[in-house]
Amino acid sequence: MDLRQIDKTVSVSPQIESADLAAIKAAGFRAIICNRPDGEGADQPTFEEIERAAKEVGLEACYMPVTSGMVTDEDAAKFGEALVELPGPVLAYCRTGTRSATLWSLSQADKKSSSDILAATKGAGYDMAGVVRRIVNGGKTPTSEGDAKFDAVIVGAGAAGISVASSLRARQPNLEIALIDPADIHYYQPGWTMVGGGVFDPETTSKTMGSLIPHGVHWIKSAVAAFEPQNNAVVLDGCRVVKYDRLIVCPGLKLNWNAIPGLVDTLGRNGVTSNYRYDLAPYTYELVKGMKKGRAIFTQPPMPIKCAGAPQKAMYLSGDNWQRNGVLGDIDIQFMNAGGVLFGVKDYVPALEEYVKRYDATLNFFHNLVSIDGDAKTATFKVSKPDTEPTEVTTEFDMIHVVPPQCAPDFIRVSPLADAAGWVDVDQATLRHKTYENVWSLGDVMNAPNAKTAAAARIQAPIVAENVSADIEGKSPRAVYNGYGSCPLTVERGKIVLAEFGYGGSLLPSFPKWILDGTKPTRLAWLLKEQILPPVYWKAMLRGKEWMATPEKVSAS
């Protein structure tokens, strides 16, 4: 808990936990304001959880979510009104506290001098110089000049961002590189399926961000508000401006938990879980272990989502657990898929269908979760089968594993870098932006038609690093991406169907068939997933050691 006083009436802080509320009350606060939207981070408690804990200790709680980097004057006015209406002193929080400090600064624009605003926020540990520039420029952040300038700026420090930073630094050791990300913790998200299956401990899937940032790369611990590529500028939370010669965009996807009414209120209880959140994956295994009979539902939203096989991986590992414990015959497994096929690459479907039969799971295609009532333990699905009128069905459950709808983050979707659908618009071979030649993108937010997986990012990172390096040397792109992605489908504990494919569903196996046939369930693929890939991720991929990821060069012809 890190409470930072701005003045006697208000303090701000990074994300708080339910367990912090008693201490916050003891510190003299009488109300809290949450400025962070639910579902923004993979390890974030919902406001409903915080509000419940606040009421238990006698604190008022106000939900005033603001999208990172998109603080409006209207938001600031509402924040100022809340400070007057709520009993004080008030604690406002978001991911890092910057949004809350920004809201306070803007709300005081007509009450305090710029120097007083700067002094108060600096005393709390926040630099609001960019906000003051915005105030004196009539609400617009000027980008002709910057607070900092780098040869290359990378937005996002997930699997793609850290990997490309390491690969680029290995090729251009004298380059001034900045990596922008507000998160304190980096997660190995492919491991969460294994946590939900009782194979991995959750702690093994996380490390501090600071321990992973490549040596010599500048870490700017902030969220991005906007891009102005015509000025080679990135605007940060707090209205600071970072200028660049070259930009690489890879912030990951937004998990839209709030798109399903009722879901946020019941996550982590009432039998409602998801392996797509760090703190909920252990609850998945807890539910599976405790379930002896009843109905278990596994959902899959419309594409695109990251790791398209993850929804059914949860189903298979759960079914295997129930089979091993002798209770499978008393459990009704229902797979609710918004799409029309079990898996997008047909070569892997026969093996998967065998496991659907083994676990006696019912496949329900064109079923999209639209609402959930945790207390009543019911889920409602919109059924949109081809050539028929859409209908809705409501079904009861004892356990439900939910995969939320996913999209590019808001600051990507509204930016000049995005295509009409909201994804960063790149050439699918070189991963260079189609309009801005000094911009590249990789990972989940770009619009190349590949699977959104960590395995794809592992291949993309050296390709982008190679092409950025070529551009620095005044040369044309010299590496191409073939759409490679991989999905290790955990069909039972000890066996995996290792799906590896590229653009158009073409098979791109890493090993000869006599060593590992990816279309069949094998123990070797399980060994790869359980014991080899985690250290490859932490010790090779994130450090720029391009094991089995050498870029394919552009043909000289």
From TrEMBL:
For this protein, the record's Gene3D superfamilies field holds: FAD/NAD(P)-binding domain, Protein tyrosine phosphatase superfamily
Domain Beta-lactamase hydrolase-like protein phosphatase-like span(s) in chain numbering:
2-109
Where does the record place the FAD/NAD(P)-binding domain?
A: 151-267
The answer to whether the entry has keyword Oxidoreductase is yes
**Single GO MF annotation:** sulfide:quinone oxidoreductase activity
- What NCBIfam families does the record tag this protein with? TIGR01244 family sulfur transferase
Question: What's the protein name?
Answer: Uncharacterized protein
Q: Per the UniProt entry, what species is this protein from, by scientific name? A: Donghicola eburneus
